[in-house]
Amino acid sequence: MRIAMIGTGYVGLVSGACFADFGHQVTCVDKNAGKIEALRRGEIPIFEPGLDALVASNVKARRLDFTTDLTAPVAEADAVFIAVGTPSRRGDGHADLTYVYSAAREIAAALSGFTVVVTKSTVPVGTGDEVERLIREANPTADMVVASNPEFLREGAAIRDFKYPDRIVVGTDNERGRKVLGDVYRPLSLNQAPLMFTARRTAELIKYAANAFLATKITFINEIADLSEKVGADVQQVARGIGLDNRIGSKFLHAGPGFGGSCFPKDARALVKIAQDHDVQLRIVEAVLGVNDIRKRAMARKVSNAAGNLRGKTVAVLGLTFKPDTDDMREAPSIPLVTGLLDMGAKVRAHDPAGMEQARKELPDIEYCDDPYVCVRGADALVIITEWAQFRALDLKRLKREMAQPVVVDLRNIYRPEDMAALGFIYEGIGRRRTSPVNVVEGGRARIASYTRR
Ligand code: UDX
User: Fold this and answer.
1) 368-411 per-position pLDDT tens digit
2) Is 256 in the pocket of ligand 1 (CB under 6 A)?
3) 259 alpha carbon to ligand 1 midpoint, in Å?
4) 441 in Cβ contact with 424 (< 8 Å)
5) pLDDT at residue 446, rounded to an integer
6) Does the domain formed by 208-291 have CATH 1.10.1760.20?
7) Nearest to 381 by CA among 399, 351, 415, 407
8) Fold match between 2-198 and 295-453?
9) Of 58, 91, 250, 293, which is least surrounded by CB within 10 A?
């Protein structure tokens, strides 16, 4: 099959490289000439494990190439995927579809022979209808079908998610369109991924409903974590205890500092707007957004509760990106957290394995360190915000030696409270009892060995 991928952002580049890897002939198109030149040189503009090697091998095999001009690739394509950005529109939370619609108009002019035009960007319900109308208006004789094929990739695990999806959703009632997309995804049926055909609007809604549901699940367990702290329960065990019920499922039940990223906040806001436009109030999703925003802002207070008044103190922060294995800082919980710490008068030093360059744009007033141990040197408290693998096995004895006060606030629960207490840390996780150190000397006075429960 011949595929044209319009947009070399996250979704476009990962999807294009994976389709090529299946053996399809793929051309990725982007208006940004600098980006295309860089891609031709083998430079990948995003941080995604394994993507550079995947792109390189498929370019070498001549199944993947890059261009700024969509004319030839669209004319030759069996399927044209629109994978351009749909940012939140300033002010009203609606998805901004400017890029989708201008791509549709340009595609219309270049179409030749039967082609399926596929929206892969996350677009509001009904966008496929408008894309079809725009193409028909610009090119009334075009032999084409517009389908919706939402993506469910997670940053940091995108290639695996693409190659081993839980399901593939294809939204079109047109039989010829279904056949073409069935052929495009045939290699995945070997992995037994269910290919689900639906009407176009249903597919568009599935994407939003999936993201809003996952955001709800996270927010639910975050609130249960708050309650766990008060009643002396352990949210990790609560999550396991409920997650083993197949009807609930164990995934996306990790309590933390609140969800961030480029999708959950933006898509949940857009879904609320879509519903409002249709006189439906999605009260649960609205509440999820509100609760999550408040939570992210409340995390700085959690640090001051553990470490005391922060004025003049130094707080070390490990992890800045919204999740591990990405350099993405969009809506990262670290932003309101660090801002809150600065507002409380703290000095902040931070380390992140991949996100420091992006973070500097959002958080210019902190000190960046290349190494976790340098970061914690002389610190009065350490906050772990992102659960990067390299933070899971830190040399804790060394960490404690480097710190001025052994206070650790672990917002991802990557350490065990009893281990931290035994090592002499004042340790606070999420949704678990706070532990005080065994035999720690504080202010010259020995504290009683204890393992306190709040
Ligand atoms: C998400 C969806 O998972 C994906 O299907 C969709 O295509 C895009 O949006 P992504 O934003 O890359 O993917 O990351 P994800 O792993 O889903 O995490 C989103 C946020 O939720 C992160 O801030 C993460 O830390 C948080 N999270 C996730 C939790 O706090 N707890 C969890 O149990 C899971």
Assistant:
1) 999 999 999 999 999 999 999 999 999 999 999 999 999 999 99
2) yes
3) 7
4) no
5) 36
6) no
7) 407
8) yes
9) 91
* Domain residue spans of the chain: 2-198, 208-291, 295-453
The pLDDT score that the predictor gives to residue 237 is 97
* CATH of region 295-453: 3.40.50.720
Looking at residue 445, its pLDDT comes to 39
Residue nearest (by alpha carbon) to ligand 1 atom 28: 252
**What do you get for the CA distance between the two ends of the chain, in Å?**
62
Spell out the residues 6+ positions from residue 220 whose beta carbon is closer than 8 angstroms to its own: none
CA 6 to chain centre: 21
C-alpha of 309 from chain center = 33
Cα dihedral angle (160, 162, 167, 168), rounded to 10 degrees? -170
161 phi/psi in degrees, rounded to 5 = -60, -35
**ipTM here:** 0.97
CA distances from 130 to 30, 123, 124, 146, 279 (A): 22, 11, 11, 10, 20
The residue annotated as part of the active site, out of 18, 28, 263, 375, is 263
Whether the CB of 261 sits within 6 Å of ligand 1: yes
The token pair at 287 is: 């509440």
The first and second tokens of residue 319, run together, are 């992890």
318 in a known ligand binding site: no
pLDDT in tens, 76-120: 999 999 999 988 887 787 889 999 999 999 999 999 999 999 999
Other beta carbons within 10 angstroms of residue 209's beta carbon come to 15
Rounded Cα distance, 226 and 449, in Å: 26
Beta strands in 265-406 (DSSP E): 314-318, 347-351, 367-368, 381-384
**Mean pLDDT for the chain?**
94
18 is catalytic: no
Query: Token pair of 293, please?
Result: 């925003």
Ordered DSSP codes for 206-247: HHHHHHHHHHHHHHHHHHHHHHHHHHT--HHHHHHHHHTSTT
What pLDDT, in 10s, does the model give residues 270-293?
999 999 999 999 999 999 999 999
Q: Which helix (H) or strand (E) holds 6?
A: strand 2-6
Angle at 184 between CA 1 and CA 118, to 5 degrees: 100
